[in-house]
Amino acid sequence: MNKPWWLAGFIIIGVLLGVGILFLVTRPPRGEPVDLLPPPSPAPVVVYVSGEVNKAGLYTLQVGSRVNDAIQAAGGFTSNANTIALNLAEILEDGERITVPGMPSILETASRGGEINIGGDWVDINNASLEELEELPGIGPVTAQKIIDYREVNGPFKKIEDILEVPGIGQATFMKIRDLITVGTPP
Hints:
The chain has helices at about 1-25, 65-75, 105-110, 130-135, 140-155, 170-175, and strands at about 45-50, 55-60, 95-100, 125, 180. By secondary structure, it is of the alpha/beta class. It folds into 2 domains: about 40-100, Ubiquitin-like (UB roll) (Roll); about 105-185, DNA polymerase, domain 1. A 3-stranded mixed beta sheet has the order 2-1-3, with helices on one face. Strand 1 and strand 2 (about 55-60) form a beta hairpin. The protein starts with a helix and ends in a 5-residue tail after the last strand.
């Protein structure tokens, strides 16, 4: 006779444990829910496009856009644009200025002894103003002022490669401007 009481006790304890577990599992969670926010989207890139484009101005583009995207946003090249003077695949940086040069006229080419400057007008780095130096690709106001300061302290540049001595101008920048600069008379 003792067996049925023990069996009944185990069944009651099992049922109570089952009800307790069911209560713990089904009750609403305690505390405040955590809202997960999406990762912040990167700020857009704003660039200024000028020169031989159909609609010069400020343009807002997505991060990772290229020079070609900025040119297209500005209505594309004009018929006088020197399309090979720019690296259209270069990735844009916020605040960048893109100047599309025009093709040199026949008179400009003849006055330079037949030498064609792919980038348009030559910039004499020994006499150029701050504004003229800023027109060069990759040269902003700070670097332009460094060029002026360097030539005031060290005298005129003897050859265009001497511009590599200016702090802030490396090989990549020199490659962008080497066909656009001269020291005195154009080559």
